[in-house]
Amino acid sequence: MGEAYIVATARTAGGRKGGRLSGWHPVDLSAAVLDALLDRSGADPAIVEDVIMGCVSQVGEQAINVARNAVMASRLPESVPGTSVDRQCGSSQQALHFAAQAVMSGSMDVVIAAGVESMSRVPMGTSAVLALKAGMGSYMSPRLQERYPNIQFSQFAGAEMIAKNYGLTKDQLDEYGYNSHRKAIAATQSGAFKDEIVALEVTGADGSKELHTVDEGIRFEASLEAMQAVKLLQEGGAITAATSSQICDGASGVMVVNERGLKALGVQPLARIHHMTVIGHDPVIMLEAPIPATKLALKKAGMSIDDIDLFEVNEAFASVPVAWLQSTGADPDRLNVNGGAISLGHPLGGSGTKLMTTLVNALGQRGKKYGLQTMCEGGGLANVTIVERL
């Protein structure tokens, strides 16, 4: 079996709902990332053999195979195919797994894994809502309802269940949420994101043109007292809007190659894909899956939690990474060192390769070797990717 290497990474700075990126069509947003990957790798566009793109709400402007549409809107030639993947929030992390598997098998040498979600222009849940309004029914089939009677699958309910099951308090989650902003502020001010972000032209409030280069969700004025003042989303619960991931517009991507691809490009790799795992878990609590997935991945890779230098665990809700820390025994100082989705935003299908972009760059900046990325996904799923910086 061959190896899979990451040779280029790119992401847009996140845009808030209705914010600075809301004027960008998601196809053009992702095309900008594809072009940036070509620039950063120096690759001849014709050498790319496939584009695999994660996207959750594949409807409206993100319908009709958003990956192929992004290819046609980019500098890539028409000969480059594209396919769209939906593994819910892990869609572009799964796109990365598919890309790595393709080059490891030798069936392809150069593949782009990417993801996009414009949550301003295609709101979360649009496909299900439109189907119901059109009288097309629900995804909850009779057999599914028979197996899970009287169950309304809810990520928010799952997040509260995790908080309760792991004995997490509102104060703990508030502190975690505050620290997400604190770390994102420090990363932004130190220039840690400079090499990740693709600058995009946007129209300012006064009509002037400017570049969007800073994640719009970061609250630079954040304080723990302000976090603690935010009301609970559920009476008796532990989670607030301030300890939940932000709705976000954004795109991201990585270029993945094998040994032949490295020779064709004539570049040095940034990282090697060391291990990949994906599991199914309880779909009711839903968001707990990163915990058993991490333990399984480490076992398969022959590693311990202490062998990993940096972790990216998606902050869908603060209870997820806090419970993950508690269960795995990981060093909290190695987790989401530049902030996470609570501060930077969670563009659903775009988050997988977004987190990988941040992880690979953080490993390089800190001179560290191994990184592990995981995230909870709708339906009780979780991907885990372990990379080695080269």
UniProtKB/TrEMBL annotation:
PROSITE patterns cross-referenced by the UniProt entry: THIOLASE_2
Enzyme class: transferase
Thiolase C-terminal domain residues: 268-389
Domain of life: Bacteria
EC number: 2.3.1.9
MF terms in GO: acetyl-CoA C-acetyltransferase activity
Chain ranges of the Thiolase N-terminal domain: 5-259
Keyword Zinc: no
Keyword annotations: Acyltransferase, Transferase
One Pfam family matching this protein: Thiolase_C
Family: Belongs to the thiolase-like superfamily. Thiolase family.
PANTHER family (alphabetical): ACETYL-COA C-ACYLTRANSFERASE (PTHR43365:SF1), BLR7806 PROTEIN (PTHR43365)
Protein name in the entry: Acetyl-CoA C-acetyltransferase
Organism in which the protein naturally occurs: Caulobacter ginsengisoli
